[in-house]
Amino acid sequence: MSSSATPHVAVIGLGSMGYGMATSLSRAGFVVTGCDVSADAVARFVADGGKGAKTPAEAARDADIVVSVVVNAAQTEAILFGKDGAAETLAKDAVFISSATMDPDIARRLAKQLEATGRHYLDAPISGGAQRAAQGELTILASGSVAAFAKARPALDAMAAKLYELGDAAGQGAAFKMINQLLAGVHIAAASEAIAFAAKQGLDIRKVYEVITASAGNSWMFENRMPHVLDGDYAPRSAVEIFVKDLGIIQDMARNARFPVPVSAAALQMFLMTAAAGMGRDDDASVARMYAQVTGTKLPGAK
């Protein structure tokens, strides 16, 4: 434990989700050190009253809890075991909370590798978006040892409105998250297809949105993402490339399990096509723009 009575937390990855999680932890009374490849993100966090670190090793040195909020498994592994990695300096009784979406097999491997050094690993993917991260109201899908949960719980309580405890070993949280991502990707692709098809029919798509959100065809993703299309605003809240990655992981898992996933395979192709058209870093509702481009359909904001 740190010498202070107040637990120290390091948040590695100060993107839209990580920044909100770090500020939620600060608000809850933790001493929080932020670390990011972007010096600007760290400087912003310091200006907001947090501490800053240049490397994961530096951030983890005084931390009881390390929260890793990066994009994928490769970045998570680099943060732990790469040059200036957190595993070099993490105290023996500290816990590493991994929030990246990844293949469950990789989560199990990273946990085994860290636990072999005497530290704790909590597999804890997140859902809810940047706004809920900033409000401390995320959904966290966690699995890990009893000791990992016990050590991580104060931070989890500060970051989450809903904490699901999904098993006593890493990998279960990751697997639950991948099922969520399968549905999320399919629903965004379907919503984008529907709104673009409605526009092609000459329908008032604002009225389409009103009708569908009050009807059985609605989905959370239709209701959440299609306003971006209505406003012609594709600033990335969640980027197309996220679903290229996550639906790709689904395909790998399914192939290994000899389990057919044709609907999510089709959705992956829609995201790949959108990325190939130059919109990979734009909002994932850009799938609708891809449909519009291919079919010569006019959507709001189109040049």
Automatic annotation (TrEMBL):
Gene Ontology BP terms: organic acid catabolic process
EC main group: oxidoreductase
Signal sequence range: none
Alphabetized UniProt keyword annotations: Carbohydrate metabolism, NAD, NADP, Oxidoreductase
Active site (catalytic residues): 177
Known catalytic reactions: L-threonate + NAD(+) = 2-dehydro-L-erythronate + NADH + H(+)
EC number: 1.1.1.411
Pfam family, one: NAD_binding_11
InterPro entries documented for this protein: 3-OH-isobutyrate_DH-rel_CS, 6-PGluconate_DH-like_C_sf, 6PGD_dom2, 6PGDH_NADP-bd, HIBADH-like_NADP-bd, HIBADH-related, LtnD, NAD(P)-bd_dom_sf
Residues in 3-hydroxyisobutyrate dehydrogenase-like NAD-binding domain copies: 171-291
All residue ranges annotated as the 6-phosphogluconate dehydrogenase NADP-binding domain in the record: 9-166
Molecular functions per Gene Ontology: NAD binding; NADP binding; oxidoreductase activity, acting on the CH-OH group of donors, NAD or NADP as acceptor
Family label: Belongs to the HIBADH-related family. L-threonate dehydrogenase subfamily.
Functional note: Catalyzes oxidation of L-threonate to 2-oxo-tetronate. Can use either NAD(+) or NADP(+) as cosubstrate, with a preference for NAD(+).
Name of the protein in question: L-threonate dehydrogenase
